[in-house]
Amino acid sequence: MTTELHSEEPRQDPRDTGRQPLPRQEWTGPGTTHAEQPRSRSGVTARASARFEPVGRAVASARSFVRDTLQGWGFADIADDAVVLTSELVTNAVVHAGTSAEVLCLRSDDGVRIEVADRYPEREIPLQTTAVSMGSPDREGGRGLQLCAALAGHWGVEYTPTHKRVWFRLDLPDRPIGTRAAGPALPTELLPLTDGRVRVAVLQIDRTGSLSAWNEDAEELFGYAADQVIGKPLIDLAAWPHTPSTGTGIAEALRLSRWEGSYGIRGADGRVIPVYASHLRVRDTAGEPSTVCLLVRDQERAVLQTPPRAPAPDTASTTDGQSPDPFELFIGSPAPDDLDGLLQRTVERARDILDGDAAFLLLATDDETELEVRASTGLPSARQRFARVPVEAGPGRYGSARMPAVHDDLTAASGAVPLLGGTGMRSVVTVPLKVEGRLTGSLGVAAEAPSRYSNEEALRLQFAADRIALAVESARLGELERLRRGSLSFLVEASDLLAGTLDRDQTLALMAQMTIPTLATWCAVYTIADQASEPYLSYVLHEDEDRIDGLKELLSKIPPPEPIPTPGARVWAAPAEAARQAALRSSWRGLGLGEHSPGDGSTVGTTQATASAVGGETVVLPLVARNRVIGMLTLGKPADEHFRQEILELAEDLSRRAALALDNARLYSERTAISQSLQRSLLPPEHPHVDGVEVEVIYRAAGEGNEVGGDFYDLFPIHDGAYGFAIGDVCGTGPEAAAVTGLARHALRLLAREGYGGPAVLERLNSAILDEGPRSRFLTLLYGELWPQEDGSAKLKVVCAGHPLPLRLRPDGTVEAAAEPQPLLGVMEDLELYEQTLTLDPGDVLLCVTDGVTERREGTRMLGDDGLAEVLTTCTGLTAGAVAARISRAVERFASDAPSDDMAILAMRVPGLLPD
């Protein structure tokens, strides 16, 4: 891949010079014809380009290039869409068209334009005016332009004599600039009063919760100098809660991305100072998170609160004499697309409206059967976030979240509001959030005292909920759209990675690494060998590597989840319960109250950390491939955390892809093992030691994963003092040819040991090959019998049936053919073969090869018989092993490409006589 980046104003593209454009097709949006110059460079402020060759990782590299480029330009909002479109278009070029792809990114003030060009201009697309007519979206390929029509603002196709270029433009979303919220103009007498200069304390808290900044106004407000508090946890200074109406822990509030509310700070004189605080999570230049807190006296909250708090309904009225709109009490400063900020502000205002001790807001799932906790105040929000409760609740004045409900005393209506169980709340009012008659959520306010609310409070809360419902639903849909586009990009990457390997262990590792930490805090993969086997814990991963061993030990002590094929995620309570029990036992041992000695504190701390890491919600997703459960994917959260519904749906999509990839890896491993086992059975065992003769064999089968091909060899004892040898070549390569090699090798041994001579052996083998019918293949074969002699020589009888002739090397460097050619096997029924006798004197070498050696090619050149003889002349004085190795190296070096044909080399040498 080659890449170029530019920040200056781009010059004219040299590719545009002198081009004669072919017909061009352009669209804007789905199904609308638009005429726009697709190569316009007006307003371009930067460009980046890269070229990708048609290789396996090109598509993934193109995605990374586009994502890195857009994020570097600050266009993260549209990066996911751009990555998906680029992936489709580059795939069309490098996979389907088989050409290199050029990707060009052009930045402008209002968006980005991306062009993908390939070198296959003949692949024109018939002119269409609507995206609908481009084909079915369910087909396997050709969805690139449909995605352009769906996601891009403008797009088009351009043809030139050398290129086909597809381009699309993504516009930046509208971003709020300047004031995001404002209150009405108020008379001077209604403006809030202050008792002097308003002081705003600015605090900064690092990721551990300790103070890292403390300004002069903070010193004035609370009486502490900066050196007295820097490095101390904020919770040491906070008196929380200051009033019954605030109950969220400060540690929980500091973990939220944004929070506003009241609490108390204990001053240097010991008095509690009520403050109104605004917390904002930020990252510094090194990427470390911290929290900036702005604090004012509680009565001066209008300084931080936008818009100013409206007067109470019973003390003021609007200009038309009506009570102020409860909706004004809900809207604060979060941007329209900041769903979490909007929900948090909503629950705080709802609590204030009804003077409650706690408030909560739940959003409905798509099927409206469950509600998901998204914001709360006065409750353990960090522990309840994304917890799910059923829409249909228990008994009470109303039994469903679809209707307003008032519960005077929850102790008398157990289970009516599952979220409030164990919180100490006694009375509660809940109202639905509906948009066009559809349930989108539920808003509730609770109090610690019984009988705090009546139908009047329910009506007030319902009126406010009706006004906020549309804003909440709009922000929720915006969040879902961003999540789904991000999910699409995630699945594209995951599918590409899973498809890139057929190794089972690597597939398991990829499966776990893709989920952590994107989807979960920890992951475990169970596999099932067959239907009669129990699930086996195959892989464990945690985002904190130090906790992997403890997690693996914990999971190994509990029974695995049941392999239920029902699709979707189901909750598995066993890990959290086991973690809780382990933490409890560890605590008792640490106090010296257990059955065993306390042990060191590190063991107790490790157990507690593991329990905290596993103590949240755990879900199991079945890995189903080809209608069989082959394993389970287990995802977990740390203590008291829950999965959100969108994450579970994404995990379900991933599990389906991972299951198929895992099963493919299993099938490939099984097929490879079977193939290798069968192929090894076709190879001869270790060749026997022949007294007085050196023997060396080099055998290489063509093709990945093949141990045996169409070439074969054998050396075996016939009877005392006699040995048979053979080297042959079956027409073709691969398993089909290997099957004939097995027939030939076993038939040669059997017939030779029955006492048949060389011609008779080959004639009967010829008949056996012809009996195979359509499966028969041509076979060239050199067969011989060897008798070492007492005088140091060796006598041979050979038959060369259509095979490359054996070569004899004498000590003086002379090379000559050692046999005459005869008809090959597997063609004619009646063969008249004869054998030839020769004697190898001391120092002589007999070289037998298959045509994979002589037919080695480099372009139009071929090694041939003459080239082989020339190499053999350089082998005088070498052992049989050295002769075979030199021939093999000469074959490999003759051409730059890897050999495409099977190759066998059999070298036999009679050692020279030792001097007296």
Automatic annotation (TrEMBL):
Basic and acidic residues bias: start-end ranges: 1-18
Pfam entry (one): SpoIIE
Keywords attached to this entry: Hydrolase
Keyword match Plastid: no
SUPFAM superfamilies: ATPase domain of HSP90 chaperone/DNA topoisomerase II/histidine kinase (SSF55874), GAF domain-like (SSF55781), PP2C-like (SSF81606), PYP-like sensor domain (PAS domain) (SSF55785)
Annotated Polar residues bias: 30-43
Start and end residues of each PAS domain: 202-235
InterPro entries xrefs: Bact_Sigma-Reg, GAF, GAF-like_dom_sf, HATPase_C_sf, HATPase_dom, PAS, PAS-like_dom_sf, PAS_fold
Residues covered by region (Disordered): 1-50, 304-327
Keyword hit for Hydrolase: yes
Entry-linked PROSITE patterns: PAS (PS50112)
Protein name: SpoIIE family protein phosphatase
